């Protein structure tokens, strides 16, 4: 079965073609992504009306590149599209394209929840996993961390999600983006903050190597960290599984404001702040996920969403699980499938075809609507 998927929930125009056989083995035939980062970077974040305008410009060239849509219609068996959550004007572009193709080609159309797509991304090119052995992983504790969401989800079976906690204000990715903006690092903030933090880690590593070689003791413990930066771990001890990151961003802002101009612009300060902010976010995400995994005695822990690409988060999660709950298997999506892509939407649609008859989706081009605030549960 060939599945053509379209994803336009935010600022990337994505199309993919996936071929899945009877045994659920799949082959990636095409995976196209047209990024709008340059358009939004000057505004420090995604502007919904601009995102929609760019999707309109990009969607047909992306489809053409993905499957040569004018001639390929006969080879596509199913169309999948993101319904939400996401930006309404952006979602509308993808849904309209998908409905049009479904109508013209007379092919079934499945609407997919974007977050379900992020969860499905764990199965793409993951040699540990196949769709057929997925039942053995259950129950799963999944941390979904993206630009718009921070959720801890208990998955008892795929398609049945219990949200244990979510953010009360900013999402983890949003916190990365806002902190990057304060520090003048541009958009998207996550990779920029992570890169800044990595410089500090490297610097410290080099210093400690040098000291070890020369058998010296450090003269101060604050080498590489000459600034007083103490950031909170919001809701770490709240006793529930909710998150809050807006106070952390404010703490970064206050610290930044009191620094002299020269310090604010210095690499050392910016990189130190990146390291501290990243650590604060990672500490809270890891502690709550591991606690939830223990409490619900899950067999596996998964991560999903753009922030799951963060190396410090991936490593800290692996270390904490190994120490505190080694029974759980940690499953991580490949780095390039953490952020938005259409392959994950195709795969999530395939999961649905295993639960429902394809004929059910034959006429869904008539009724499908965008769902900008769709929930997982
Ligand atoms: O899942 P995604 O592509 O889009 C949404 O559904 O929101 O996630 C985008 C978010 C952005 O906030 C971006 O800054 C963050 O993921 N992100 C990262 C990293 N790569 C992307 N955050 C931390 N570290 C990264 N390496
Ligand atoms: Zn996403």
Automatic annotation (TrEMBL):
Record keyword Transcription regulation present: no
Entry GO terms, CC: cytoplasm
Cofactor dependence: Fe(2+)
Cofactor note: Binds 1 Fe(2+) ion per subunit.
EC number, UniProt record: 2.3.1.234
InterPro entries on file: ATPase_NBD (IPR043129), Gcp-like_dom (IPR000905), KAE1/TsaD (IPR017861), Peptidase_M22_CS (IPR017860), TsaD (IPR022450)
Primary location group: cytoplasm
Protein residues bound to substrate: 144-148, 177, 190, 310
Pfam families: TsaD
Residues that coordinate or bind Fe cation: 114, 118, 340
Key word Nucleus present: no
Gene3D superfamilies: 3.30.420.40
Described function: Required for the formation of a threonylcarbamoyl group on adenosine at position 37 (t(6)A37) in tRNAs that read codons beginning with adenine. Is involved in the transfer of the threonylcarbamoyl moiety of threonylcarbamoyl-AMP (TC-AMP) to the N6 group of A37, together with TsaE and TsaB. TsaD likely plays a direct catalytic role in this reaction.
HAMAP family hit by this protein: TsaD
Protein family (similarity comment): Belongs to the KAE1 / TsaD family.
Name of the protein in its database record: tRNA N6-adenosine threonylcarbamoyltransferase
Gene designation: tsaD
């Amino acid at each position: 079965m060939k599945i053509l998927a379209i994803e336009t929930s935010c600022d990337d125009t994505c199309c993919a073609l996936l071929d899945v056989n009877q045994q659920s083995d799949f082959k990636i035939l095409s995976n196209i992504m047209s990024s709008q980062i340059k358009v939004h970077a000057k505004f420090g974040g995604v502007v919904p009306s601009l995102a929609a305008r760019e999707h309109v410009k990009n969607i047909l060239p992306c489809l053409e590149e993905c499957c040569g849509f004018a001639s390929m219609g006969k080879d596509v068996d199913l169309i999948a599209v993101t319904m939400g959550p996401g930006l309404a004007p952006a979602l509308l572009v993808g849904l309209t394209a998908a409905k049009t193709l479904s109508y013209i080609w007379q092919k079934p159309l499945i609407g997919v929840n974007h977050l379900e797509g992020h969860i499905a991304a764990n199965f793409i090119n993951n040699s540990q996993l196949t769709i057929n052995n997925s039942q053995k992983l259950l129950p799963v504790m999944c941390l979904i961390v993206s630009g718009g969401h921070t959720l801890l989800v208990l998955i008892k079976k795929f398609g049945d999600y219990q949200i244990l906690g979510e953010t009360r204000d900013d999402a983890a990715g949003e916190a990365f983006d806002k902190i990057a903006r304060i520090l003048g690092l541009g958009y998207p903030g996550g990779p920029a903050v992570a890169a800044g933090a990595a410089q500090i880690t490297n610097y410290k590593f080099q210093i400690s190597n040098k000291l070890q070689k020369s058998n010296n003791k450090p003269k101060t413990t604050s080498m590489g960290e000459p600034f007083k930066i103490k950031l909170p771990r919001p809701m770490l001890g709240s006793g529930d599984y909710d998150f809050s990151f807006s106070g952390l961003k404010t703490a970064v802002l206050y610290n930044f404001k009191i620094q002299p101009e020269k310090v604010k612009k210095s690499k050392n300060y910016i990189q130190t702040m990146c390291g501290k902010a990243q650590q604060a976010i990672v500490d809270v995400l890891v502690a709550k996920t591991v606690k939830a995994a223990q409490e619900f005695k899950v067999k596996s822990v998964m991560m999903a969403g753009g922030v799951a690409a963060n190396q410090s988060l991936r490593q800290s999660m692996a270390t904490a699980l190994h120490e505190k709950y080694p029974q759980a298997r940690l499953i991580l999506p490949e780095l390039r499938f953490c952020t938005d892509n259409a392959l994950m939407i195709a795969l999530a649609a395939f999961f649905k075809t295993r639960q429902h008859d394809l004929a059910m989706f034959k006429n869904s081009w008539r009724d499908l609507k965008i769902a900008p605030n769709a929930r997982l549960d």
